[in-house]
Amino acid sequence: MIRLGGQSGCGSDAAAERGAVTESPPAGARGEPALSNRSAGTARGRQSLVLGVTGASGAVFARRLLQLLESDPRVERIHLVVSGSGLKVMREELGIDAGKSSEIPAQLAGGPVAKTLYLLDSDIGASIASGSYPVDGMVVIPCSTGCLAQVAHGISSTLIERAADVCLKERRKLILAVRDTPLSRIHLENMLRADAAGAEIFPIMPAFYHHPKGIDDLVTQFCCRVLAHLGLAQEEQFRWQGPESRSATG
Ligand SMILES: Cc1cc2nc3c(=O)[nH]c(=O)nc-3n(C[C@H](O)[C@H](O)[C@H](O)COP(=O)(O)O)c2cc1C
Predict the structure, then answer these.
(1) 85 — phi, psi (to 5°)?
(2) For residue 239, with 0-12 CB atoms within 10 Å meaning exposed, 13-18 middle and 19 or more buried, which class applies?
(3) According to the model, what pLDDT value does residue 3 have?
(4) Alpha carbon 51 to chain centroid distance?
(5) What are phi and psi of 116, to 5 degrees?
(6) CATH 3.20.20.70 for domain 13-21+47-249
(7) Residue 35's pLDDT band (boundaries 50, 70, 90)?
(8) Ligand 1 centroid to 230 CA: how many Å?
(9) Is pLDDT of 97 > 90?
(10) Going by DSSP bridges, is the β-strand pair 75-82/116-120 parallel, antiparallel, or unpaired?
(11) Percentages of the chain per state (helix, strand, coil), in multiples of 5
(12) What atom in ligand 1 is closest to the CA of residue 145?
């Protein structure tokens, strides 16, 4: 396999949504390192990102992306928001059934998290709802066609939708890993609309040319592609160099 060199490695949901734990208090108040006051942009340091998880199939992609972000030293802070439907799908596909929202990050990551803040999707007053709060970009993975529609039409009724809207208006990176099949004309038009507004449509369509050894490999490679588009290229990422390199490397 050919790898990129250089950068480092790659209760009930109702209770959680009701706010068993509401948005975490300000960073300093929790004894966590406060974010430096800075404008968005990757040039000046480690990234602060939003990870939105909505109710499309593919919770395993959210899990792997969170793991990669957690282990990436170029990432300072991850703001994790999961929609009510996202929680349902996580329970269905990953067996996650968190009684408290505070448990969700570690359950999703499959282990302890160090830089992930969990925000309620209903908390429209959370930090990331404002353009004045500095984040470098946002990924919604998996992104439901419902969320796509809301974002494409500037309807910000949840924190995920609002944070995505903020990314567009502030001209920040927004990656929508949409998943559904087949796609209706409405879905396709919404993709064009979101693309025209500055979002990057990144459908969950994994590649096979790297000869994945299994689902984990397939998921990892897809997530590495997403992260490369955030400026966080991963060592684990396969890069196609033509059939001649395959015969050269075995
Ligand atoms: C198990 C399960 C799988 C689903 N898979 C998809 C999917 O792949 N794509 C999609 O657009 N919606 C899917 N849905 C429907 C969405 O969850 C639903 O439209 C929901 O309202 C989206 O809300 P959200 O965007 O706030 O998460 C699924 C729902 C369930 C329960």
Answers:
(1) -70, -35
(2) middle
(3) 38
(4) 3
(5) -100, 125
(6) no
(7) very low
(8) 25
(9) no
(10) parallel
(11) 40, 15, 45
(12) 11
Structure tokens at 171: 């001209």
Are 68 and 227 in contact by the 8 Å Cβ rule? The answer is yes
CB 151 within 8 A of CB 144: no
Q: Return all residues near 42 (Cβ < 8 A) that are at least 6 apart.
A: 136, 231
Task: Classify 154 in phi/psi space as left (phi over 0), alpha (psi -120 to 50) or beta.
Answer: left
Angle between helices 159-169 and 145-152 (to 10 degrees): 40
pLDDT reading at 20 higher than 60: no
Please state, in angstroms and rounded to a whole number, the distance separating the CA atoms of residues 179 and 181: 7
What residues have CB less than 8 Å from 200, skipping those under 6 apart? 173, 174, 175, 176, 229
The model's pTM: 0.85
Ligand 1, pocket residues at CB < 6 Å: 54-57, 83, 85-86, 88-89, 92, 144-147, 179-180
